[in-house]
């Protein structure tokens, strides 16, 4: 079942977000203990309208457990959503890093799929594809965008199969990514 995320999902969602932050080598991940950072991410999911707020998240459940999630929002909201992180009550050593993901990732005219992530034990079961199909059906008529690590062949295969095309290549937090677009 795919459904909108709820505040009570925040712990599992924070774990999923951490997977992405770790893969992107976001600065705060390198310097803050994982358990403390997970608590901060949970606050961002529930307490303020951060980019990873539960209102922007859909989850896929298998046997009543969250298997993965998709985070998406209008590209013209990205900067304001990111700045909301600074409204959180954070420890000073976390706050000193500023916003975790300050780099602009989407264009204003896009419905940006920021994250599609699956817990390792559910990979290879079509979770990411089901979430992508769901959001693309749910938001018909949108110009969708996402960024994909050029070395993530599995994700590239899924996105191309769904009709996404590479528009450009750019550096995202020190890693090469394709900016990909799908227009129905």
From TrEMBL:
Keywords: Acyltransferase, Transferase. It comes from the Bacteria. Pfam families: Acetyltransf_1 (PF00583). Coiled coil: none annotated. Residues 1-184 form the N-acetyltransferase domain. PANTHER family: ACETYLTRANSFERASE. This is GNAT family N-acetyltransferase.
């Amino acid at each position: 079942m795919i459904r909108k995320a709820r505040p009570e999902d925040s712990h599992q969602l924070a774990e999923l977000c951490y997977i992405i932050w770790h893969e992107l080598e976001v600065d705060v991940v390198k310097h803050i203990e994982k358990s403390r950072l997970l608590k901060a991410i949970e606050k961002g999911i529930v307490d303020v309208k951060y980019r990873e707020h539960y209102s922007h998240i859909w989850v896929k459940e298998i046997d009543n457990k969250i298997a993965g999630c998709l985070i998406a929002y209008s590209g013209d909201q990205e900067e304001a959503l990111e700045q909301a992180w600074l409204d959180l009550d954070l420890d000073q050593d976390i706050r000193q890093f500023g916003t975790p993901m300050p780099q602009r990732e989407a264009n204003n005219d896009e419905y940006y799929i920021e994250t599609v992530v699956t817990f390792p034990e559910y990979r290879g079961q079509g979770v990411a594809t089901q979430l992508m199909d769901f959001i693309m059906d749910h938001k018909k008529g949108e110009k969708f965008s996402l960024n994909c690590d050029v070395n993530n062949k599995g994700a590239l295969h899924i996105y191309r199969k769904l009709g996404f095309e590479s528009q450009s290549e750019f550096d995202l937090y020190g890693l090469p990514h394709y900016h990909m677009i799908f227009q129905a």
